[in-house]
Amino acid sequence: MGAVSAGNLRGLPGQTQFLGSLLLAVCLLSLVAYLAAIAQPNQGYVPIWPEGGIGLALVWRHGARYWPAIFASNTVLSASVGTPLFTAFGVGWLQVLIALTALSLLQRWKIHPQLADMKQLGGFVLALLGASSLALPIYAFRMWFLFQYPPLRALAFGADYFLTAMFGFLIFTPVIVSWRAKALAQKLKRRLFIVSMSVLALAGWGLLSLPEEFRDRMLFLLLPFVVICAIIGRAAGASAAAALLTMTMVAMGSHDAVPILDNILRALFILLAAITGYLLAAVFNEREQATAEMEYRAGHDVLTGLMNRYEFERRLEVALQDVSRRYALLYLDLDQFKLINDTCGHLAGDDMLRTLSDTLQDSLPRNAVLARLGGDEFGCLVQDSSMDEAQSVARKVHETIRGFKFAVGELSFTVGVSVGATFLSPQQDRGPDDVLGRADIACYMAKEHGRNRTYFYDLADGEMHKRHEEIQEISQIQSALVGGLFELYGQRISNLSEAADTTAFFEVLLHYSDPKGRMSIEDMLGIARRYGLMAQVDRWVFEQSARLLQRSSGRDLKLSVNVSATTLESEGFQQFLLALPGQYGFRAEQMMVEITEAVAVQNLRRAVDNLRALHRHGFGIALDDFGAGVASFGYLSELPVTMVKVDGSFIRDLGKDPVAEVVIGSLARVAALRDISCVAEWVEDAALIPWLRRLGIQYAQGYAIHVPAPFAALEAEWNLAAATI
């Protein structure tokens, strides 16, 4: 007995609070209904009653258990306009049925109160239509059965009630459920919204002073302010403006008896104004979301969701200008990560990077930001950091990595991390490259001394000083370019068409000959990217390719040249490239600029303008690794692409994985619909060529077609062939 009483007492405060809230809702909603009835003594200049929309907003925001407020307010409303009490109860129950039906549909279709896009807005309107349509047959039957109205007149009353419910929901519900204070956080937006609403109210008041025959004709003057409110305040603003417009029309006809048809026509005017506002709100919301998405992608890594290198370097730039704080930079390079890729494939490696990134992010202090710089490398910028704090963050990173395990089937993998650390020096550092360079050197030293440890940059350290000098020597890319250590190779891209094609089409590949045999081209380009020297390398490759086209003016030659993201957005590169055809005497159509999906993801907005300008002047645009990323199809509409290169992983799996054939065929069809040529990469088996041709692939590239060779050797072959002929 005592236990039961204690349980009841524990539940009593919550129940009492709800009953108090419900009673308050009943009183307020009934008051609104009563005031609406007083304002419309002739059953309304416009058949719209606010308590229906407010009631739906109440149950949408706080739950269906507030239905008694809807029942009470509609009963009060019906009684206030002279309906017998028993009949008024029936109207109250009808409105509860309609509101709960609308709520059920909104929840079933997962309609968000913000009505942020066309799909949400369409679902909202359909839910209201579906629920309000219950009113027409039920109310018409009521008027025919209880009051003996003729069928047509009873249907007219049913239609009137349907419009009353529908428009009450449409006009008054969104302003309550979708209003967000932060939507008007900007002072300019807030002022514009207040001014627009004030002008709308004053203009409505001004209409009341006009003769009755002019009022309807002047209503269109209010629409621009409805539009402005919708653009600024979105769905809530459109709803607030439509509600104010409704009140104006109610005040305009509060003392005049108006035919039902006129009521319906005026209600339709308000409906069109509200719908127009909601449509504009949805359009501007979608536009804002698209812009936000592009800005997010420009600054974040697609795989992990972390900051990308571009955004991290921007943060470093800002930190270097902040002399009031001390910043530490940790450069993280995972150890043994390649083992996961080699054992389980790149998809498993990507999954591990995603999981590890989340784990690392959660382990860092609030004053630290984490970024993925590329591959398995991460950067961590720690604000207000002393040496002890930086060491503490590094220890936490090692502890987190040490405790991290990643399972793939029955296999379980662990990784280590080598950390290079340095402090920002605003007086000495010329830019982010200097800081990243020091941290990279420290990270290299951590790996040299056994990996899975932290090294702080110290120029007094003899080994570190030596490594610094080596990096400085290696980073002199210009010397390598002038010294002939770089060489252009070409790999043929073969036309699979049955028709004869005399065009020699090659992708230009860069080869590096290290006299000491210490570095590959990948290592060299990695250093070039790290130290901001890729633009020099890319310009050299394009210029050498232009010279090759000049020397081969007697041949029908076409070259596809890769470009890095940093070069594509660098100042003056567009003008440099546009000048090459005139300078070296070849047609722009003979040179294709090849970008990868990674470039597009990171720098889409900056790249599009340059690429479009190049395309207008005749250069071809190729998109490499097509199909490898989630946004492949979207790039075809954003970028002026003339050729796509299907990611080689699909070609490799052709004949082994049925999905590969479906994907390749789909990519080829999408490209064909946009009149874009399609190239299959990694073709290492000549037996695949007829298969690729059937799937709609026009070109092929790979070792089964041609093994990359120096252009110097290719030119010698061409000259020998020409001499023989």
Strand order of the largest sheet: 9-16-15-14-13-12-11-10-8-17
Model regions low in confidence, pLDDT < 50 over at least 5 residues: 1-10, 720-725
Spatial gap, N to C terminus: 112 Å
- Total beta strand runs: 17
Structural class call reads: alpha/beta
- Given the structure, what is the number of helices? 28
Mean pLDDT: 81
Number of domains: 3
In percent, how much strand structure appears in the residues?
5-15%
Strand count, sense and barrel status of the largest sheet are:
10 strands, mixed
Overall radius of gyration: 35 Å
Report the helical percentage.
55-70%
* General shape: elongated
Overview of the structural elements:
This protein has 725 residues and is α/β, with parallel strands linked by helices. The protein has 28 helices and 17 strands. The strands form three sheets. A ten-stranded mixed beta sheet has the order 9-16-15-14-13-12-11-10-8-17. It has a five-stranded mixed beta sheet with strand order 2-3-1-6-7, sandwiched between helices. A two-stranded antiparallel ribbon has the order 4-5. The N and C termini lie far apart (112 Å). Mean pLDDT is 81; it is low at 1-10 and 720-725.
Features:
3 domains; TIM Barrel; 725 residues; alpha/beta; single chain; 12% strand; Alpha-Beta Plaits
In short:
The protein has 725 residues and is α/β, with parallel strands linked by helices. It is 62% helix and 12% strand.
Topology:
Elements: H1 2-39, H2 50-62, H3 67-80, H4 85-108, H5 118-132, H6 135-147, H7 151-177, H8 187-208, H9 212-218, H10 223-252, H11 260-299, H12 309-320, E1 328-335, H13 337-344, H14 346-363, E2 368-374, E3 377-382, H15 387-402, E4 406-408, E5 411-413, E6 416-423, H16 432-448, E7 454-456, H17 462-474, H18 477-482, E8 486-492, E9 494-495, E10 504-512, H19 521-530, H20 534-551, E11 557-562, H21 565-568, H22 573-584, E12 591-596, H23 597-616, E13 620-626, H24 632-638, E14 643-646, H25 648-653, H26 658-673, E15 677-680, H27 688-694, E16 699-700, E17 709-710, H28 711-724
Helix pairs in contact: 1-2, 1-3, 2-3, 2-4, 2-7, 3-4, 4-5, 5-7, 6-7, 7-10, 7-11, 8-10, 10-11, 11-23, 13-14, 14-15, 16-17, 20-22
